[in-house]
Every structure is written in structure tokens, then in C-alpha cells.
């Protein structure tokens, strides 16, 4: 992500999803009824087996489970999906190349394709969990340094509560561990883990691994002493268009920034600067909800992860800073007669955006199984739903039939929560603090290993099982986590089975 510098802009009213106003009183009442907490857990709720509504993918829970298009997509749009898929999987090359169709990679980059970090449209994993060992794919290290008081004041005038940071002066906003021939990579993300035991009621002992991050072999000298790091694995790609279609108002309605209801859970809406609409907007994408729309997220990935200029991020040198002179002067893939003069043109950006909007969520496995239903009841009574909100109904979006007016089950509120010191990265982003993270959507999480061949969870992949992921919860989620530690082993096992069925 390219971090914004100070912007002298006055506060613009939040741009609400246009379709919002279209809900009639009767419709609003129906939405409230279908999204209410169920009265009993002895049987699945209506439509529970279809987490993405009509867009849900039915069929085998295999390695392709996250790679299928929205189920009810028309033939013409299917073609667009497949074109987007091809760009998502394409390996970009250094400019200038003979064909010119796929050049412009770098000068600095983390991977040559989107797919490398989002394997099978699933999540990335920390390098230690991958073979061959030492491979860096699927994980990045965001960098920044604190902004000056003046810069902070300028930002606060634009977005209240915004905590701006600046790119690290030499290395920029992300550590790129690869570079085109002739240029040195910026360095390496080194991780060490320290394992410690967590005893659970009933005699079981879980072992968590606490990571420490360092930059190995920094190519242009040490990083700034006040540099802040945010390690992140690539999230799974399913259901993103449906999350984009949740009305702003329904997300904001669940926020409780001052914890007015006193339940210990606040939940804050992320307010971010949207490069796409040049105004503040509600953030939903990325581990700190730092980005408002999928198109902007995709454009930022092209710019920062692959080093490809595009209509939203037009700098062909991507994340190279002014201090990186060789990088700034390396040949670019831009050509005035080609691709709108960018390395990635608007049409290509739109195709990939369409693709990421339409990766379907697989159907639930065995939602009527008695142990899974018991786990669902435990999930509710333990307080998990305070953040992992089961249901939303998407807005009516005439130009996006696949996402329009669907009952969805993402198990997220799309809000920011203080998750305690254990998970903190101490690096603010937008309005998110160094302890806050966006509630991770849980749909499809049970298929992680089937899709990517590995299990690791949380923003930096430190948890090697779903139970470990829960045991890392702190801050606002500490009471829920403590209840999981204290509950009888059968309840804990049922809770995990429920998560595996999502
Ligand atoms: C080097 C690894 C890497 C590559 C390459 C990469 N991504 Fe990602 N992707 C990530 C990480 C890490 C995040 C989380 C970012 C954050 O927290 O802000 C992410 C997040 C996303 C998201 C938001 C998901 C969510 O749940 O909020 C989308 C969409 C996305 N990437 C699409 C793409 C596309 C399209 C490409 C290719 C143009 C791409 N990515 C290339 C690592 C990568
Ligand atoms: C206070 C809000 C909150 C509560 C309560 C909460 N969670 Fe979470 N959960 C989060 C956030 C935020 C994350 C992402 C944290 C991160 O990535 O570091 C998360 C992540 C997870 C993950 C990993 C997701 C992934 O994609 O890697 C699982 C599994 C999970 N939660 C399950 C639970 C269960 C089960 C409960 C109840 C015992 C629970 N959570 C209670 C906020 C909460």
C-alpha cells in the first residue's frame, strides 16, 4: 500500500453506498428478522448452508474450492471472470520484453503474480511453514515511521481520528524482497518463534508460537531507528464482493467506539482516505480495514506487491523512495502507445477487480451435524458473535447482480477491535491503532488446508490451528478467549468442529 502524505482537504461527508436509501421500511424489517440471533440451536437456520446466498458455490470441498465464480453468474460475465483469473495468475516480466503484454514488473517487487501470494485464491503462510524453507511467498512486511505533529494535524482535519504515518525514508511502505536483474532486493523478512504452553481446562495443553520480526540483510543500510513493522499474510480471496456490498450503515450501526453498552467490546469503523473517490470512506479491506474498495485494493497490490503502475497508482517505480536512485531510474514498462500509457491499464484493473469480487464462498459442510450445532451454540454463548457477526444482507446493486440483496454469513462485523498486546503490531494505519485489527471473516476457514495445503491463521499466520488462533485473542476478546480455556473439552471440540464446518 502506498501511504498517503498530508493532504490539505476538508472533511467530505462519507459517501454512502448509493443503494442504501432503497430499503423500504418493510424491507428493513425483513432484514432485521433474517439477521437476528436464532432462538434455538437444535437445527440449522434457513439458508445457513449457503453462506453467500445465491452466489454460494456448491460441490466438492477440494483444492479448487476458493477458485470458483459466483454460482448464478451469466455466461458473458463468466467470460470476464475467466479473463480476470488469467491476469491474476499471470507471471509478469521485467521491461522491456519482446511481447510487451506482461512487462513492467518491479523494479522492486514481492512476487511476479497475484496468485503466488494468494495460492488457490486462499491465504498466504509464513515462510517457516513453507517448503522449500526460505521461500517468502504470501507474506509481506509493511514499514513506516511516525509522522510529525504538523502532518498529523493536517490529517486530522481531513479524517478525525486518523493516525498518519510516513513511509520508511529509505525502504518505503513495504519491504520488497525481490528486484529486477541489476538491482538489489531491499532485504529479507526474518522470523523467529518462541513457543510457550497454554494449559486448558480438562488437561490439554496448547502450544503457541510468539514471532519476532527482523529485516535481514537490508540492502541500503539499517532502517530508521523509529521504523514500525507490520507483518501480514495474504488473506483468502472468497466473498470479497459481498463484503463490499454490505451497506455502510449496517456496519456503522454495529460500531460502539466508546463501548456505550458496557459489554467490553467496542468496535470502531475504519475511516480511510479513498484514492479512488478522493474522499474519506469506510475501510473494509486489508487486515486493518485500510482500504475502502476492491478496485483500490487491487490497484495497490499491482503497485506495491508487483511494482506495476496503473490508473490509481500511476508511479511506474512503485514503492521505490527518492533515496533509491537506481530503482527510480530503472526502465519502466510504460509506453505512450500501449495500455493507456500505464503498466496495467484501466480495463485490466477492472477485470481483476471483477474477478476478486466474484470468487464464490463454498457451501457449509454438514451444518446439521449435532456436534457442529452444539459448537454453533458455544460460539454464540462464548461471545464470539460480538465481533464475528454471523449475518448481513447486502445492498441492492442493479449493476452487480451477483452481490445484490443476498443474505450472507461472513462471521465478521468489518470493524476494528483492540486485540491486546499479544497481537499488536504497534503500527497505526488510517484510523486503526497499533493494537487494532479488522475482525477476520470466518467463512470458508475450515477449508484453508484443503485449498493451500497448510494451516496457519491470524494476520501474520502465527497460529498453526484454529484453537491457537482463538487462544491468541486478547484485549476486547480476552473474556471470550478465557471462556474457551475454561470450558469443558467437549464444548471446545464442538466449537472447533463448528469453525471447521464454515
Ligand atoms: C507479496 C504477496 C502478495 C501479492 C503478490 C499480492 N497480494 Fe493481495 N494481499 C497480500 C497481503 C499481505 C494482503 C493483506 C493486506 C493488508 O492487510 O493491508 C493482501 C490483500 C489483498 C486483498 C484484500 C483481501 C481482504 O480480505 O481484505 C485483495 C483483494 C488482494 N490482496 C488482491 C490481490 C491482487 C489482485 C493481486 C495481484 C495484482 C495481489 N493481491 C497480489 C499479499 C499479496
Ligand atoms: C473483540 C472481537 C473478537 C471476539 C470477541 C472474537 N474474535 Fe476472533 N478475531 C477477531 C479479530 C480482530 C481477528 C483477527 C486478528 C488477527 O488477524 O490478528 C480474529 C480472528 C479469528 C480467527 C482467525 C481467522 C483467520 O482468518 O485467521 C478465528 C478462528 C477466530 N477469530 C475465532 C474466534 C472465536 C471462536 C471466538 C470466540 C471464542 C472469537 N474469535 C472471538 C475479533 C474477535
From TrEMBL:
Coiled-coil positions: none
Swiss-Prot/TrEMBL keywords: Heme, Iron, Metal-binding, Signal
Domain of life where this protein originates: Bacteria
Pfam families membership: DHOR (PF06537)
GO molecular function: cytochrome-c peroxidase activity; electron transfer activity; heme binding; metal ion binding
UniProt cross-references to SUPFAM superfamilies, sorted A to Z: Cytochrome c
Signal sequence segment: 1-21
Location of the Cytochrome c domain: 370-502
Protein name: Thiol oxidoreductase
Amino acid at each position: 500500500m502506498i501511504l498517503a502524505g498530508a493532504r490539505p482537504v476538508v472533511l467530505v461527508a462519507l459517501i454512502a453506498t448509493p443503494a442504501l436509501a432503497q430499503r423500504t421500511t418493510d424491507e428493513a424489517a425483513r432484514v432485521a428478522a433474517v439477521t437476528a440471533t436464532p432462538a434455538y440451536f437444535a437445527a440449522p437456520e434457513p439458508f445457513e448452508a449457503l453462506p453467500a446466498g445465491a452466489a454460494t458455490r456448491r460441490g466438492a470441498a477440494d483444492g479448487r474450492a476458493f477458485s470458483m465464480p459466483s454460482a448464478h453468474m451469466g455466461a458473458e460475465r463468466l467470460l470476464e471472470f475467466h479473463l480476470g483469473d488469467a491476469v491474476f495468475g499471470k507471471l509478469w516480466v521485467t521491461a522491456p520484453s519482446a511481447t510487451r503484454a506482461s512487462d513492467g514488473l518491479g523494479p522492486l517487487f514481492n512476487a511476479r503474480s497475484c496468485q503466488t501470494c494468494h495460492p488457490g485464491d486462499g491465504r498466504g503462510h509464513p515462510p517457516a511453514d513453507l517448503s522449500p524453507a526460505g521461500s517468502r511467498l504470501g507474506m509481506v512486511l509493511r514499514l513506516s515511521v511516525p509522522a510529525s505533529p504538523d502532518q498529523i494535524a493536517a490529517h486530522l482535519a481531513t479524517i478525525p481520528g486518523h493516525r498518519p504515518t510516513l513511509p520508511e525514508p529509505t525502504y518505503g511502505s513495504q519491504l520488497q524482497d525481490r528486484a529486477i536483474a541489476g538491482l538489489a532486493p531491499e532485504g529479507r523478512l526474518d522470523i523467529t518463534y518462541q513457543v510457550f504452553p497454554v494449559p486448558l481446562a480438562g488437561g490439554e495443553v496448547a502450544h503457541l508460537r510468539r514471532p519476532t520480526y527482523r529485516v535481514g540483510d537490508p540492502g541500503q543500510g539499517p532502517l530508521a531507528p523509529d521504523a514500525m513493522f507490520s507483518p501480514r499474510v495474504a488473506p483468502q480471496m472468497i466473498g470479497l464482493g459481498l463484503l463490499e456490498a454490505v451497506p455502510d450503515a449496517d456496519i456503522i450501526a454495529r460500531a460502539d467506539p466508546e463501548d456505550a453498552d458496557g459489554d467490553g467490546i467496542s468496535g470502531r469503523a475504519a475511516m480511510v482516505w479513498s484514492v479512488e473517490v478522493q474522499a474519506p470512506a469506510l475501510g473494509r479491506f486489508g487486515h486493518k480495514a485500510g482500504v475502502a474498495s476492491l478496485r483500490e485494493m487491487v490497484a495497490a497490490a499491482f503497485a506495491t506487491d508487483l511494482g506495476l503502475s496503473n490508473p490509481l497508482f500511476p508511479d511506474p517505480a512503485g514503492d521505490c523512495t527518492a533515496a533509491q536512485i537506481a530503482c527510480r531510474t530503472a526502465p519502466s514498462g510504460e509506453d505512450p502507445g500501449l495500455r493507456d500509457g500505464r503498466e496495467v491499464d484501466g480495463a485490466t484493473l477492472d477485470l481483476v477487480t471483477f474477478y476478486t469480487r466474484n470468487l464464490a464462498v463454498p457451501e457449509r459442510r454438514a451444518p446439521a451435524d449435532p456436534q457442529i450445532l452444539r459448537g454453533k451454540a458455544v460460539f454464540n454463548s462464548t461471545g464470539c458473535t460480538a465481533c464475528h457477526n454471523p449475518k448481513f444482507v447486502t445492498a441492492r446493486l442493479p449493476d452487480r447482480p451477483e452481490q445484490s440483496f443476498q443474505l450472507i454469513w461472513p462471521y465478521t462485523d468489518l470493524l476494528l477491535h483492540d486485540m491486546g498486546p499479544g497481537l499488536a503490531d504497534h503500527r497505526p494505519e488510517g484510523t486503526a491503532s497499533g493494537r487494532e485489527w479488522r475482525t477476520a471473516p470466518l467463512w470458508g476457514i475450515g477449508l484453508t488446508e484443503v485449498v493451500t495445503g497448510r494451516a496457519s491463521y491470524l494476520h501474520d499466520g502465527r497460529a498453526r490451528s484454529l484453537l491457537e488462533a482463538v487462544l491468541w485473542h486478547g484485549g476486547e476478546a480476552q473474556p471470550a478467549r478465557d471462556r474457551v480455556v475454561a470450558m469443558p473439552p467437549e464444548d471446545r471440540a464442538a466449537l472447533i468442529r463448528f469453525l471447521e464446518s464454515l
